[in-house]
Design a protein that fits this description.
Blueprint lengths: L2 E7 L4 H5 L12 H13 L7 E4 L3 H13 L9 E2 L16 H12 L7 H8 L1 H11 L8 H18 L5 E6 L1 H11 L17 E6 L5 E8 L5
Parallel strand pairs: 1-4, 2-3, 2-4
Antiparallel strand pairs: 1-5, 5-6
Helix pairs in contact: 2-3, 4-6, 5-6
C-alpha cells in the first residue's frame, strides 16, 4: 500500500536563534519554537496517523512528542528514531557562525566573498555547493553530495521498510535534509535547482509507494495552510 508521509521540520532552536551552524550538533527548542510548534500540532490534531517517527536528534524528538501529545485521533506507541533522517553534517563548521561558514565557502568556490548562501548556490550550483563546503571545512568532514545522496536514498529505503502496512505517518526531520529531499523528489522541481529552505514547524507531504518510490507533493506548508 502507498504511505502518506507528513514531513515536519523541528521547531526553532537556540542555535537557530543565534545564527549558528547546527547539523549533527544539537540545541534545545526555544520558547518561540515550542509556541510555533503548538500551532502546527493543533493543525494536525484531527489527522489520523498510523505511526510517528523522528530523527534521533533531540530537537526532532522533542518536536515529534509535541505532535503526538496534541493529536486527538491517533493511538501512537513508542516513537521510533531514524538516524538516517538526521540533519546534513557540517563537519568542523558545527557550532560556528553561519556567516563565517558561507564566507569560507564562497572563498573556497573562488567567487566574491558573501554571507548570502542563496547567492553562492545560484553561482556554483546546488551540487557543487556541497563539494565546496566539504573543501572549505578544515577537516573535510562535512557531507559531500555523494555522501548525502547515499544517506538520503538509504533513508527512503528504511522508511519504506518501517512503514510497511501504514497508510499515513508523521516524520520529524531537519531543514537542510528536508530541502535536499525536496530538490530530488518534489514534483515541482527538476532536481537541478535550489528551492526555498523550509520554515521551522512547516509540513511537507510525500507519497511512498509499494516499490519504495518517493514523491513530495506539497512542500513547506505553514500551520495556517494545512
Amino acid at each position: 500500500m502507498k504511505t502518506e508521509v507528513y514531513l515536519v521540520r523541528h521547531g526553532e532552536t537556540l542555535f537557530n536563534r543565534l545564527n549558528k551552524v547546527q547539523g549533527w550538533c544539537d540545541t534545545p527548542l526555544t520558547i518561540k519554537g515550542i509556541d510555533d510548534l503548538k500551532k502546527t500540532a493543533d493543525a494536525l490534531s484531527q489527522i489520523h496517523f498510523d505511526n510517528m517517527y523522528s530523527s534521533d536528534l533531540k530537537r526532532a524528538i522533542d518536536t515529534v512528542h509535541l505532535m503526538k501529545d496534541a493529536n486527538q485521533v491517533s493511538k501512537i506507541g513508542k516513537i521510533k528514531k531514524l538516524p538516517e533522517f538526521r540533519e546534513v553534517f557540517y563537519g568542523s563548521f558545527e557550532g560556528g557562525s553561519i556567516d563565517d561558514i558561507w564566507l569560507g565557502v564562497s572563498k573556497a568556490a573562488g567567487i566574491p566573498a558573501t554571507t548570502d548562501v542563496k547567492k553562492i548556490i545560484d553561482t556554483i550550483g546546488i551540487y557543487k555547493f556541497r563539494e565546496v563546503t566539504k573543501k572549505a571545512d578544515p577537516l573535510h568532514l562535512a557531507e559531500s553530495t555523494e555522501e548525502l545522496e547515499t544517506r538520503m536514498c538509504r533513508a527512503i529505503k528504511v522508511l519504506r521498510k518501517e512503514t510497511s502496512g501504514e497508510g499515513r505517518v508523521l516524520l520529524v526531520s531537519h531543514g537542510d535534509f528536508i530541502k535536499t529531499l525536496g530538490i530530488k523528489y518534489w514534483k515541482e522541481n527538476d532536481g537541478l535547482h535550489d528551492i526555498t529552505f523550509p520554515d521551522n514547524g512547516s509540513v511537507s507531504q510525500g507519497i511512498l509507494d509499494e516499490e519504495g518510490n518517493f514523491e513530495i507533493v506539497d512542500y513547506n506548508c505553514k500551520a495556517e495552510d494545512l
